[in-house]
Description:
- Keywords: Aspartyl protease, Hydrolase, Metal-binding, Protease.
- Residues 179-244 form the Integrase catalytic domain.
- Residues 316-403 are annotated as: Disordered.
- InterPro entries: DNA/RNA_pol_sf, GAG-pre-integrase_dom, Integrase_cat-core, PolX-like_BBD, Retrotran_Ty1/copia-like, RNaseH-like_sf, RNaseH_sf, RVT_2.
- The chain is α+β, with helices and mostly antiparallel strands.
- The protein contains 15 helices and 28 strands.
- The strands form 7 sheets. Strands 2, 3, 5, 6, 7 and 8 form a 6-stranded mixed β-sheet that branches. A 6-stranded mixed β-sheet has the order 13-9-10-11-12-14.
Amino acid sequence: MKRNCYLLKGKDKKKVEDSNTTAVASTSGGDVTLLCDRGECCHLENSDAEWIIDSDASYHCVPKREYFSTYKAGDFGTIKMGNKSVSHIMGVGQLNTVEDEASPNLWHNRLAHMSEKGLQLLAKQSLIPMAKGEYVNPCDVCLFGKQHRVSFQKNLTRKENKLDLVYSDVCGPLETVLGTPQHNGVAERMNPTIVEKVQCMLKMATLPKPFWGEAVNTVVYLINRSPSVPLNFQIPEKAWTEKDVGYSHLRVFGCKAFMHVPKEQRSKLDDKAIPCIFVGYGDEEFGYRLWDLQKKKTVRSRYVVFHEHEKINDLKEDKATGSSGEGVEDLTSAKTPSRKITDEEEVQAPEDETEEPTIEEDEASIDGGNDEQGEQPLPQEEEPQLRRSTREHKPSARYPSSDYILITEEGEPKNFQEVQSHQDKDCWMRAMREEMNSLHKNNTYELVELPKGRKTLKNKWVFKLKKDGDKIVRYKARLVVKGFSQKKGIDFDEIFSPVVKMSSIHVVLGLAASMNLELEHLDVKTAFLHGDLHEEIYMDQPEGFEEQGKEHMVCKLKKSLYGLTQAPRQWYKKFDSFMMSHGYQRTNAYPCVYIRLFLDGNFIILLLYVDDMLILGQDVEKICRLKEELSKSFDMKDLGPAKQILGMAITRDRKAGKLWLSQEKYVEQLLERFNMKHAKPVSTPLANHFKLSK
Length: 694
């Protein structure tokens, strides 16, 4: 190993080479020694820091301690130098080496374990710097992820032009032989290719399986930049965009990375970089996707320094030795990384620290080289001993038993199982039987065998107490379908259902007051159960009401149920067809306003808001006749003269021709919700001595 001796050239004319210079060499498993001559370390000067490891040499000598990954100090004998002086061996250990940029093994790892043929094609096009005649060393990771069975015979009818053959799944499902996705055609063949590369990359990076999503994105990104056989070994990205493809930004997946923290988001003494794991490339703009080890989320930045020869295991070792990997946790038990992408500006500085005007910090470009400095570890100061608290500990106050009454009081059950152990079980069971009788009376469903290939929707019981003040008026139970599992195009199509606008309600109330008209309020019981279904939907039998001997059968819905996605629309269509068939006209501007003009000059206006109705008219007999017709088709509840609508209380003075709307109960509920029911009222929200300014 030929080098110029630093001691022979003079210390005042040449400084010691910067310790952050990286040695470029091929991998070696042998021991390396640290030499000392005449009480001082030997400095082997080299501007490029490139040296050759000779497999036949007895010793390999390194002048710097920081090059070692493992090191054992001691007296290991002496070595005779070229100037006939004798140097003592200070220690023996193993050395971390960095592969050359032109190494085929490095590009093999960067390009998601691309085949040797693909690397040679890229090198032939001068897209990657790889020496001619070099080969990739046998890769055990490729065997773990890419070992195949016997391949299928190639199809003789290979298509050559675009759109000569289009693979489209227009029928199905089509059954194939178990474990042979090749039968499904070209589209399925890419899936195992992607999975194999993902397995190799995760294995190489020693990352856990929850990182499979990032690995898939990276593999697809690299496949689009790899030679493609169907395209005559062209690059898919270049063939698609007709632009040259660059490879200089590629890095080894899962390697150690340091992301720069802008000075605006850190204090003067905070680290300028944070350790991360490289997990992919940006989608829309240039930038690297990194896994923040401390915040446990995916971030994106373009100011990154990579250590491609280090990976997650090295980060764990750094943590164990107390080096720069502080805060690194075991990722084998990490949760799946969030898909939320954040820019580097999300790195937050501590809020309790403020920056004072200081001398401008040296913000050298992080892309200009490795800025790491070899520093001696500072002696750790002894932490001051914490004093023991002298505060007198008192037992916590115990509340009287009466304060726990509301906690132990049973309210509304959450499910059918809670009903069985509820103190009001009989009342809730009676409410459930009433709901089931309503379903049977309405002919909502029928029991059938589940057709092959179809799935059922789940359902649940919902319980509600109807109260008048503190008094329980009614126990109500309702069977609700879990419609969130419905699929558009199969279980439903259109779902929009209009409601009357508030402006229409105000106009009708104004007409009632000015013209002294009759104003009636009606409510439809179980409105959504009246809608007819046109889709074929199957549901499990209601819990607790399975028919004996038919437990294996399912409910085929004939009419809509609460919880179905299309239930509101089906109810509106049913009601709309009823009103149109009885001579009422729907206004074009307001779909939920129905008007009928009679020959004697009278008229009736009906407003519909889901299951609430307001009826306005002059003739009481005609209004009563409409109520009878509605009751024949729907289960109605006549609430008499309108006293409230949509939470608004209605007060009328028919003699004076006036009508008032108020939301007093709503305001009281709002105050009680925010614990302000006993607050003192004021005439103005702001004291009158305050002056407002622009």
